[in-house]
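Structural prep section.
Before we set up the soaks we want a predicted structure of the protein with nickel (II) ion in place, mainly to decide which crystallisation condition to try first. Input record follows.
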Amino acid sequence: MSLLAIHTLGSPILREETQLVTAFDDDLRTLIADMFETMYAASGIGLAAPQVGRTERLTVVDVEGAKYAIVNPEIVFREGKDRAEEACLSMPELYGDVDRAKRVIVKALDGEGKPIEIHATGLLARCLQHEIDHLHGKLFIDYLSYLKRRAQLVKWEELRVEYPGNLRQLKAGAVTEPDGETM
Ligand code: NI
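Run finished without errors. Recording the tokens verbatim:
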């Protein structure tokens, strides 16, 4: 397994549409293992393939022990509304309140190509919606009002110098975000 560099805001791949996964092979298994390792090293609860510079329609999540590798996901049901603060591994130290569905059902495949259906509420539901957005080039800041988004982007102009080439290099064993709810 290896730690992958996380692409930060400004990297074009974060805005690209992903491609459906069709091969469930060793390459995919390695990518999934590396993504889990990278997510844990960054103290995240979710990580999507574009965040590590890949175009596969794939995300990994571990929300309070609900751990999934999720391939080609689709939200087939959403219900209710819930507003809470979000943070993203690709934009360290940016925050914003985002409205999400309170409850979702996601249909997907697991890392072996077997169909899975996830019934989620609360933080898991929020994390799944955030990650599936990543798979379609969408970021949480897109949901903020013009003024709030602008404030975060101004902040980012100072923060981004820490990430040359829009890449965030992690160090093994270093816990960088103690809040642990970054996705
Ligand atoms: Ni994110």
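Observations: Residues 6-72+82-99+122-168 form a domain with the Peptide Deformylase fold (CATH 3.90.45.10).
Flagged for discussion at group meeting.
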